[in-house]
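Reading group handout, session on sequence-to-structure problems. Before we discuss, look at one worked example. The prompt was deliberately terse, the way you'd type it at a terminal:

> structure Putative HNH nuclease YajD

The input record follows.
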Amino acid sequence: MPSKPKKPCAYPGCPALVTGRYCEEHARKTNSDYEKFSRDKQTKRRYGRAWKRIRDKYAAEHPFCEKCYEHGFLVPVEEVHHKLPLSEGGTHNRSNLIALCKSCHSQIHAKRGDRWHNH
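And the output record:
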């Protein structure tokens, strides 16, 4: 199956052609800006060294996106997601975690309206 054509980076003035939304440089910048200015400070405090260890161990044990795997695709894991968000009473318990690729992770958050405030 042919891949989609590349399009310009969504960052204003950047001419780089990309397959996602931003080029690597601007993806880092927009994520950094989000973490610094837009993300809820209470939520940010819940993610520390302990979470990094839990996330890395879970990702090592689940090397493929669990959603894609259900459909027969082997896509490497890029995110570990909380099924019930910490802000809604979720925990770092393994039963509340799922390994996802960036696409599946973004779809979940877009449907919830978390990052882009589409309530």
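Points for discussion. First: The chain has five helices and four strands. Second: The helical segments are 24-38, 41-45, 49-61, 66-70, 102-112.
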